[in-house]
Amino acid sequence: MRTTRSITLGAAGALLLSACSGGGESVDTGATGGGGGGDVLVAAVSAQPDQFDPHVTSAYPSFQVLENVYDTLVVPNAQDLTMEPSLATDWEVSEDGLTWTFNLREDVTFHDGSEFDAADVVYSYNRIIDEELSNAYRFATVESVEAVDPQTVEITVSQPTPNLPALIGAFKGMAILPEGAADEYDLTTEAVGTGPFTLESSDASSTELAAYEDYWGGAPSVGGVEFRYITEPAAALTALQNGEVQWTDNIPPQQIESLEGDDSVELATTPSVDYWYMSMNYDREPFGNPLVRQAIATAVDRAAVTEAARFGAAQPNQTAIPEDSFFYYDYAPFEPSAEEAQSLIEQSGVQTPISMGLMVTDEFPETVTAAQVIASQLEPIGVDVEVQTVDFATWLDRQAQGDFDAFMLGWLGNIDPFDFYHAQHITDGSSNYQGYSNPQVDELLTQASTETDEDARKELYDQAATLIVDDVSYLYLYNPDVVQAWAPGLSGYEIRADKAINFEGVELP
Questions:
Q1: CA–CA–CA angle 316, 317, 322 (5° rounding)
Q2: Pairing of strands 475-486, 266-271
Q3: Which residues have C-beta within 8 Å of that of residue 6, sequence separation ≥ 6?
Q4: Where do the domains of the chain lie, and which CATH numbers do they carry?
Q5: In this structure, are residues 111 and 39 in contact, taking their beta carbons and an 8 Å threshold?
Q6: What per-residue confidence (pLDDT) applies to 37?
Q7: Of 156, 347, 351, 382, whose CB count within 10 A is highest?
């Protein structure tokens, strides 16, 4: 078993760990220019993408695919997640910190054969901004995006924004599309990127990619990738051991230890930049009552939840950022106590029993397990939990509609404290589905987003985290490890703390 134990958090990037399962007929994506030589890598993943528009989706199963199809201007380094060149060869910032200039790579083509230039960058970013798509909040300080010439893009900001490279490069939600792509293609089912693979087809059982021979970084060694959906972790592991698939991230947590020394798989783990949490709907009484939320946070034994859900492959945490980070904040105000929790319920004036529907999805089985443990922990304080297990399509729709008492899931791909806290907790934030609003938190998060001194920035985020945790905007549970496995002899793959899945360098045995 190979283990890596170092991560660095420096600048912003977030990816919501939520996805849709949906069914449907096979979709011909209309891609051209694919079809490299070599065998196809078969990867077992737990869920189906909800769609393929990188600017709209917030689903990790979509980004598992899109990571291999699209590029961003800059990209996180696999080792320490610092930003390095991708479609931009280099960049510089003006002395006053208000003008960023990106020099673009030449001789890059999209999968439809069109040439990449500055107009595509301007189009992609303005599409996100103008249409207020999922990641528009990343451009909060951006005043303009302009093409200086075909190989140069200039971004002007209203305030110094030291984490701008990661805001635009931390994950493929900031992908560069060809100019006018949304008018020419159905981006929910088609993809036209500059990445190492083309999207060929997708249906209810798998998504297929083909190698892009004209990829600017060199054609992939494998001829393509098939993402096969295997929801049950034990079945995914069996498929890997039987040679039906060559890679999976769907490993039963209870079998991680027993797989050490198992010659049938190569197992790798690394601390992630993910966090898993539970959140309650402020518009559903009595969960708008802070004493009720604090009672629930006091009754939950995070260590027990973590052990049940992850079997040691995670670290309990009452804040979002993992302990290996410079921005980690050691703050844990809730000591598990049914007696103290009952006292808080009594102080709230709310009569028990309290009914709570806790929404989870079986396509991430750990959410079901964790919810069952939480239900047992809340029962003694008079909170009757109904664990509502739904598919991802339903989960996403209900979250967006505010149709929940509480839900559990996780955020992944976070690189900077901005993405651990900002969109989730600032008033009317794009991911603030719980309806949290605290003017003091808003002020702290806004100040922190443009603070250039790292120590001062950490202090601002520490103050914000204190309020967020005390208010129980999110009830944080744990930071999981990334656990992945592949066939012995497979080379060229690197496990990453941000959970980005890159297959362009893979060689099959």
A1: 105
A2: antiparallel
A3: 79, 80, 271, 324
A4: 39-69+195-263+501-509 (3.40.190.10), 71-189 (3.90.76.10), 275-481 (3.10.105.10)
A5: no
A6: 53
A7: 382
pTM, entire model? 0.82
Quote the pLDDT of residue 378.
Answer: 98
Task: Output the average pLDDT for the chain.
Answer: 91
Cα within 13 Å of Cα(73), Cβ side = 27
pLDDT tens track for 189-238: 999 999 999 999 999 999 999 999 999 999 999 999 999 999 999 999 99
Intra-chain end-to-end CA distance of the chain, in Å: 18
User: Token pair for residue 186?
Assistant: 């159905």
Q: Confirm if 194 and 115 have CB atoms less than 8 A apart.
A: no
Q: Residue 198 forms beta bridges with which residues?
A: 210
CA distance 275 to 27: 33
Q: Tell me which H or E stretch contains 477.
A: strand 475-486
Query: In degrees rounded to 5, what are phi and psi of residue 148?
Result: -70, -40
Buried b vs exposed e over 213-232: b needs ≥16 C-beta within 10 Å? ebbbeebbbbbbbbbbbbbe
Place of tokens 């592949």: 486
Average pLDDT on 269-278 reads 94
Distance CA 445, CA 401 (A): 25
CB within 8 A of 312, min separation 6: which ones? 253, 256, 257
Q: Exposed, middle or buried, 291 (CB in 10 Å: 0-12/13-18/19+)? A: middle
CA distances from residue 219 to 74, 194, 374, 448 in whole angstroms, order as listed: 20, 12, 48, 41
Cα–Cα distances in angstroms (integers) from residue 183 to residues 60, 178, 217, 295, in the given order: 25, 10, 28, 51
CB 68 within 8 A of CB 212: no
Give the model confidence (pLDDT) of 373-411 as tens digits. 999 999 999 999 999 999 888 998 999 999 999 999 998
pLDDT over 80 (residue 10): no
Residue 26 confidence (pLDDT) above 90: no
- Under a CB-based contact definition with an 8 Å cutoff, are residues 214 and 460 in contact? no
Rounded to whole angstroms, the Cα distance separating 51 from 66 reads 10
Strand partners, 40: 224
22/17 Cα distance (integer angstroms): 16
Which residue in the block uniquely carries the two structure tokens 């941000």?
Answer: 498
How many Å apart are CA 104 and CA 476, to the nearest integer? Answer: 40
Helices 302-310 and 365-378, packing angle to 10 deg: 150
Residue 14 confidence class, pLDDT cut points 50, 70, 90? very low
According to the model, what pLDDT value does residue 27 have? 39
- CA 332/CA 41 separation, integer angstroms: 44
Quick one: tokens of 322?
Answer: 């993992």
pLDDT at 321 exceeding the cut of 80: yes
